[in-house]
Amino acid sequence: xxxxxxxxxxxxxxxxxxxxxxxxxxxxxxxxxxxxxxxxxxxxxxxxxxxxxxxxxxxxxxxxxxxxxxxxxxxxxxxxxxxxxxxxxxxxxxxxxxxxxxxxxxxxxxxxxxxxxxxxxxxxxxxxxxxxxxxxxxxxxxxxxxxxxxxxxxxxxxxxxxxxxxxxxxxxxxxxxxxxxxxxxxxxxxxxxxxxxxxxxxxxxxxxxxxxxxxxxxxxxxxxxxxxxxxxxxxxxxxxxxxxxxxxxxxxxxxxxxxxxxxxxxxxxxxxxxxxxxxxxxxxxxxxxxxxxxxxxxxxxxxxxxxxxxxxxxxxxxxxxxxxxxxxxxxxxxxxxxxxxxxxxxxxxxxxxxxxxxxxxxxxxxxxxxxxxxxxxxxxxxxxxxxxxxxxxxxxxxxxxxxxxxxxxxxxxxxxx
Length: 417
What we know:
With 417 residues, the chain is an alpha/beta fold. The chain has helices at 15-18, 28-36, 66-74, 91-102, 114-128, 134-153, 163-174, 190-201, 214-223, 234-237, 257-266, 302-305, 310-337, 340-366, 371-399, 403-412; strands spanning 2-9, 41-48, 52-59, 87-90, 182-186, 206-211, 227-230, 243-246, 272-276, 293-297.
């Protein structure tokens, strides 16, 4: 049995590949249930974000194809069609990978904190679906602790860099006078909230929040002094937007070429800067071919994100050292679990012997035998029962010239020379 990670991320595959195997919140419970129906899968957690889809499992054996075959079948992809884009980690490497991801060391934005919240959400979803047990549950809890330690003990999170920050930074390069600009933000999740706050901090003139749930849009708009609209109202407001940043969980594009063309006519060809952070994409790719439209997807932000990261790279080296230590701590805990059945057997055996001898002692008391004599008989018999088999095995090991058992017993009972 071992831990296995099977995944795809921004380093191994472009967005048009990643969106083919993303899991939205609606299908995730069914996916977890389907995966754990496989006889080789004991526990499972699925993390699916705009930059990665990763499946963490505790398997019965070392089969290399279990997760790959299931993933292709679930997303109705031809067998192994996407295999070249995936990576797989086993055992200690799988443990280390999760710790690195939780600490933001495997993110497009080095050290970004959002991924930890996304991992916690995935963990909760697996708990709700009852697909996570003792071992994988302990691993994820350990990753949360390590991420907190890394963020406390290093400068990994000191630089204000994120996908949202990168999007706003690029907008500032195009629109030097942010106070004269209007931003339309589509969605109301954490990424959009970060973008809204960065825009407000940089003096944006006006912010419009568009979301499927108008109440969520309104709550965010209040925080950044903007106003909220529903997605159905978006075409009527698009012409006002100099900046459009979109990040929703929609499975289909919500902003098409026709709507953008109409908006450009109303704007008299004044350009619009667009950033599509969503996976699958919210904005039809054809929009990027239009004149006066500057469309960027998450992969396009990579060069911008490289700036202001040197301090995080230095901190990442410290984080890697912490992670190496914490991997060993977790592996030590795993090894200790091998002793649990043995400890349980010893305790159960001792309890059974105790109960038998206790019943005998109570009968002796009922027969009028002196309590002191009964206690002495009980203590002698209990000691002999517990030590008989270990003593026999030790004598046999001496007869066989096997010192390993004797040495182990010395350590077990802390017998000094």
